[in-house]
Amino acid sequence: MSAGVLFRLATAVAVLFPGAAISATLKPPVVKAPAGQVQGVNDGSIRVFKGIPFAEPPVGPLRWRPPVPKAPLKRTFDASSFGPACFQPVSKMDNIYANNPWPMSEDCLSLNVWSSAKAKKAPVFVWIYGGALWSGTSRDPLYDGRKLAERGVVVVSLNYRLGPLGWLAHPELSRESGEGVSGNYGLMDQIAALRWVRQNIRSFGGDPSNVTIAGESAGALSVMYLMASPPARGLFSKAIAQSAYMISTPELKAARHGSPPAEQIGAFVGQKLGASDLAKLRAMPADELTKGAAAAGFFPLGVVDGEYLPDQLVNVFDRGEQARVPVLAGFNEGEIRSLKILAPPAPASASEYETKIRAAYGELADEFLRLYPAATYRDSILATTRDALYGWTAERLARSQRALGAPSFLYLWDHGYPSADDAGLHAFHGSEIPYVFGSYDRTPPLWPKVPDRGGERALSEAMLDYWASFATTGTPRSRGAAEWPAFGSARAYLHFRDTPRAERQLMPGMFELNEELMCRRKAAGNIGWNWNVGLASPPLPPAAGCIFGKAKG
Predict the structure, then answer these.
(1) Is residue 548 situated within a structural domain?
(2) Residue 335 among the catalytic residues
(3) DSSP conformational letter for 389
């Protein structure tokens, strides 16, 4: 093809697709880092490096071992394609979160970087995907980092092991471990990726001393695990938790808070899979292991092992032993509208609802029914689970960091748009993510489509500003949008509806009631504080020193 033809073709592309033309005419970006030399791709003015390995493939004898750092690359690594997802159940295309199947492999410990060629000592934003620790991948188009990178932030997204491959504890695994522990392999992967960032991100224009960890749902749970984990200390300086849930979690060797020991759970899963010992478990194909563990009822969670998770999250945060970093935390008004599996079925009548609540909540029933009234019991059922998981946790995070003297910022996502509201999914779980990333044109197939109109774009631009500025300075700000006040004694928060608005006193009484319930259950020692609330609640334990309405922070 002649130079003239190439010039005319490039000119036509420039007119029709300006960003693509820039990418087409630039040479692929190459970065030489301590981990080795990588060659990425251009996306407009942003360089993208995909699928960079940060650990050796955890297969064979490395399955259920701490991640082994990847040896420095000996030749230029082609970082033009995303790496495979970690093994997970294949999506059944029957819900709004389902995506077309991803390529999967045990060789999945990779990360991606978006940065401007002009970036120098730029703040770093590390994204941890959600998916109940069962599913998710950093290659999801929802998590495209280009628009955040255009605001001067270096964006990193990472993969971590999921399901039984990432979170299974087992007596034999504990015995072969130098620390005598098992489980938490997915958390170890996240820490290994953050160490890679600490060692390499300067080569991509990032500042290793200004790293923000961020995630949604199980990604936000992971953020709290990292805040509580001693091996993660010093690897990040700020945290963003979107729809986090500070639930009770299994302990390695003790039956506590309604859960058997994590090692016992792992041994049970092995028996269900017909694997009488660790060697047989390691010999199983990863897809069979994943499917079999799901069928056996395995539910992945972090394990209180005394090493990576020293205690239940509520205890770590109550003692002020978590990372002393600024936090931005919030939840969605309609969390459970898309997660109705987490809520108990509705009774036949309001009177039946009230009778059951009074039987379960005793002297706290009047306050419970004030917050979650029988007159609107179907909505109350959804609000009960929402607040016990996400609302209480968001405010607890803000209070906990404030008690440490660290800035904290709280939000409520209460934004609806026609396709979501018409489907009864106003402000559903995860619906803020396309606005945070500006990826509202890249949602999964059944996700209610975000309309391409000025108001939606303006709200996304404001959120991109808030999240990027928090990653930069620890204070969320947006040009032309509301000032976001710190949580403080006024319990201030930012209310995202059609536009952001600063308000005070989020859902008065919600936090205090749920804190009291958690405190009583924790003191009882045999009840978890999870989604067993409202109509699904066991009888209320005695007060045991809990002071209703005067929770810590």
Answers:
(1) no
(2) yes
(3) I
